[in-house]
Design brief:
single chain; 223 residues; alpha+beta; two-stranded parallel sheet; 6 strands; 41% helix; globular
């Protein structure tokens, strides 16, 4: 294998593809499959629909992006979901990396707008699998049920073609708009993401969110 691909097969503290639960889940999802393209597509569906999209979860510490943590909690937003998919891919010996872009959700809910103060989500995450000699994008963010609310078909991925957000929904209303791409990464750049959020959404808004996140996490722990 090309040495340049090796970093995208290695576990990190966040993309912990060597975690027993992550490796076990990857094996259970892909049992009986041989084609890397089919394996990647099956992992994609497992994360897209098995981990519900939730923008209201904590996000201020690296723990919340860790693949094994996301697998346990079964709900998160685009970055942690991409982290999990990346870890599952590496556990199956398929090189995978993270990509980031700013996107505008023209159909953002009022609840989403209240949280962020804008319909722009900075550092939205997707993954890139290395398949059949090239990098292929996949976007596991929105589960099937959420897509029904937006009146858009769930994003499919066949392991052979890029799968990015649709620009329009079923009613031909403008949906997702990619504004800027930030490149690809071996690991989740938590500090870079938080800095971009502070610049976009304001430190005070994020401080309030951090406080709520910490409190929610403490309440979720067994006494």
């Amino acid at each position: 294998m090309n040495e340049k691909l090796l970093p995208y097969l290695q576990p990190t503290e966040i993309i912990d593809s060597d975690h027993p639960a992550v490796a076990r889940f990857a094996r259970s999802v892909t049992e009986g499959l041989e084609s890397p393209e089919d394996i990647a597509a099956k992992l994609y569906l497992a994360v897209r629909d098995g981990i519900w999209y939730d923008v209201h979860v904590p996000f201020d510490r690296p723990l919340y992006y860790t693949a094994s943590y996301v697998l346990e909690k079964k709900r998160s937003f685009c970055v942690p979901k991409a982290s999990l998919l990346c870890a599952l891919s590496r556990a199956c010996n398929i090189p995978c990396r993270l990509g980031f872009a700013d996107v505008r959700n023209h159909l953002a809910s009022q609840r989403f707008l209240k949280i962020l103060g804008t319909d722009v989500f900075v550092y939205h995450a997707f993954v890139e699998f290395y398949l059949n000699g090239k990098w292929i994008k996949a976007t596991p963010a929105f589960n099937r049920e959420l897509c029904k609310l937006y009146k858009v078909p769930p994003l499919e991925f066949n392991g052979r073609e890029d799968s990015l957000f649709q620009p329009y929904n079923d009613e031909q209303r403008q949906y997702m708009q990619y504004l800027e791409f930030h490149g690809t990464y071996q690991d989740v750049p938590v500090d870079e993401i938080v800095a971009a959020w502070e610049n976009t959404y304001g430190v005070e808004r994020l401080r309030n969110r951090f406080h709520l996140s910490g409190r929610r996490e403490e309440e979720a722990r067994p006494s």
